[in-house]
């Protein structure tokens, strides 16, 4: 084991330990444990949101995809960027306003209150979706951590998985949401620096972009084609297959929970979009070029890597002084932990709060609920550990499967409930039930994470039409359609419709203390949020 790499990583680990200790002082109630008391600054919430979003997929899965597919993998980056923007436009501000109105701590809290469901079915379905797919997502992060430790420290992947689980579970149990948010801020900065430095070092090593493209072209010319060499309909399918991540952003509980914690919903628009957009653009660029240039280094004999998804840690060890490589390894572990910690917290809230407390009606004190949640975090981590050790260990595929289940389960109903006053609890129940069952059947029994013509019977014919397109992309729109149809056939309570109209009605332009120009300079969402806060509606 390289002592320099170990030193850099231990410095990072000490920083995490300090944050966990500090955050524990501010984690005494259930509200503080799950959403930070709704007092998180927009800068921290935004960086935490993106760090939670991009996970080991950004540092390992996406570079590995660029290593294997070349220029065509850039479509995944485009999908992620536009998905990020869609979250801040379609979900963030309105969800924060509604969450404040209902005092909602979790996504199931919000959905149950918004749809006025007294059957508990929406909360039960939400908990099942979160438990099944979030546990699978956590397992993907553990696998990413295992691969990083294996490449950086020369241990086995399974040993690396175990170390990841121990570190991660310790600070989530200790500090809750505050620990998760502020470690995410540090981790977001680590990720940013890593994905700026590594591609430039790779360019210097290979001798420039022209030299790199020449090497790649001689090895496989299709890697320089934006559609992987495909044309016509096949090219469109190719682009959709990679860019399909865009719809998933609307239904990720570990991401949208950040919006519920922000102190002021107005800041989720311009400051939130600006911070998130800049950070996302830089890291996606860096992750793509790290994998793309890593393939050139590999072909030129300048880099030895046994697994495409381990290309960034391999480049760090090869191209940097060992102690700096230790910090890069820490940056990769940051990406893994920044997502897994949020997912553990969301999964624990689904079991401890949504199922144990709300569905079963177990009345416990606030401090006791925090302790129960910590025990649940430990239990979910053990299940995720088992899946990580026994699973396929292909991060891109593992993340796509879990991402898809959450996207279909929550994305359509979240979006419609925030923008359409006519959506009903019956539509939500039927749509979420279909999303859960269909994703499990299609991905576990029929296709896997993407459509394929090799599926049996008529499923193979359908799979051939959408070959290699992720199942969740098509299923998202089917679920959306089902919710709309069922909602049109049923009727929402009048008070629910009235509340929606009251919260999001057009706010007239002020001509008093503020000029018309000053007021119009704001977006309509900012004006609505300002009006709601002034009237004490949220």
From TrEMBL:
GO molecular function, one term: sodium ion binding
Reactions the enzyme catalyzes: L-proline(in) + Na(+)(in) = L-proline(out) + Na(+)(out)
Location(s) in or outside the cell: Cell membrane
Transmembrane residue ranges: 5-23, 69-91, 121-140, 160-182, 189-207, 227-251, 272-298, 323-351, 372-389, 395-420, 432-451, 471-490
A GO cellular component entry from the record: plasma membrane
Keyword vocabulary terms for this entry: Cell membrane, Ion transport, Membrane, Sodium, Sodium transport, Symport, Transmembrane, Transmembrane helix, Transport
A GO BP annotation: proline transport
Pfam families to which the protein is assigned, alphabetical: SSF
Source superkingdom: Archaea
Main location, first listed in the record: membrane
Membrane topology: Multi-pass membrane protein
Gene3D superfamilies (UniProt xref): Sodium/glucose cotransporter
Family: Belongs to the sodium:solute symporter (SSF) (TC 2.A.21) family.
UniProt cross-references to PANTHER family, sorted A to Z: SODIUM/PROLINE SYMPORTER-RELATED, SODIUM_PROLINE SYMPORTER
Protein's UniProt name: Sodium:proline symporter
Organism: Thermococcus pacificus
């Amino acid at each position: 084991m390289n002592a320099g790499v170990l030193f850099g990583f231990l410095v990072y680990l000490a920083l995490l330990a300090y944050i966990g200790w500090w955050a524990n002082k501010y984690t005494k109630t259930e509200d503080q444990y799950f959403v930070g008391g709704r007092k998180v600054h927009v800068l921290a919430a935004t960086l935490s949101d993106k760090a939670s979003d991009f996970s080991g997929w950004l540092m390992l899965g996406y570079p590995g995809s660029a290593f294997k597919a070349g220029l065509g993998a850039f479509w995944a980056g485009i999908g992620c960027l536009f998905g990020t923007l869609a979250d801040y436009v379609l979900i963030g501000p309105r969800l924060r306003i509604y969450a404040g109105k209902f005092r909602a701590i979790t996504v199931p809290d919000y959905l149950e209150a918004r749809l006025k469901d007294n059957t508990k079915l929406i909360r039960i379905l939400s908990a099942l979706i979160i438990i099944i797919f979030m546990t699978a997502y956590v397992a993907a992060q553990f696998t990413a951590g295992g691969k990083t430790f294996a490449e950086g420290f020369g241990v086995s992947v399974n040993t690396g998985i175990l170390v990841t689980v121990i570190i991660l579970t310790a600070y989530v149990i200790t500090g809750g949401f505050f620990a998760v948010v502020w470690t995410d801020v540090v981790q977001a900065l680590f990720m940013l620096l890593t994905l700026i430095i590594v591609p430039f070092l790779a360019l210097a090593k290979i001798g420039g972009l022209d030299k790199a493209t020449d090497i790649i072209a001689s090895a496989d010319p299709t890697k320089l084609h934006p559609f992987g060499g495909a044309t016509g309909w096949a090219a469109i399918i190719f682009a959709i297959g990679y860019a399909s991540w865009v719809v998933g952003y609307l239904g990720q509980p570990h991401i949208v929970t950040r919006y519920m914690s922000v102190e002021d919903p107005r800041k989720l628009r311009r400051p939130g979009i600006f911070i998130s957009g800049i950070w996302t653009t830089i890291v996606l660029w860096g992750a793509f070029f790290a994998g793309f240039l890593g393939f050139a280094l590999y072909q030129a004999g300048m880099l030895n890597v046994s697994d495409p998804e381990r290309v960034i840690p391999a480049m760090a060890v090869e191209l940097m002084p060992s102690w700096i490589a230790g910090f890069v390894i820490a940056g990769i572990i940051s990406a893994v932990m920044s997502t897994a910690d949020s997912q553990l917290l969301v999964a624990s809230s689904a079991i401890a709060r949504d199922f144990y407390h709300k569905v079963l009606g177990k009345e416990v004190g606030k401090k006791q609920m925090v302790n129960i949640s910590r025990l649940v975090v430990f239990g979910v981590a053990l299940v995720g550990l088992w899946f990580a050790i026994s699973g396929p260990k292909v991060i891109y595929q593992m993340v796509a499967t879990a991402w898809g289940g959450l996207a279909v389960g929550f994305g359509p109903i979240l979006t419609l409930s925030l923008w359409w006053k006519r959506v009903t609890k019956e539509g939500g129940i039927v749509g979420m039930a279909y999303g859960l069952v269909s994703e499990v059947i299609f991905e576990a029994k029929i296709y896997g994470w993407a459509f394929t013509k090799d599926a049996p019977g008529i499923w193979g014919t359908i799979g051939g039409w959408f070959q290699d397109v992720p199942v969740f992309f098509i299923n998202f729109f089917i679920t959306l359609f089902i919710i709309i149809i069922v909602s049109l056939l049923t009727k929402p309570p009048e008070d629910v419709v009235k509340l929606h109209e009251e919260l999001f009605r057009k706010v007239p332009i002020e001509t008093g203390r503020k000029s018309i120009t000053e007021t119009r300079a704001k977006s309509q969402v900012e004006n609505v949020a300002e009006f709601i806060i002034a009237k004490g509606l949220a």
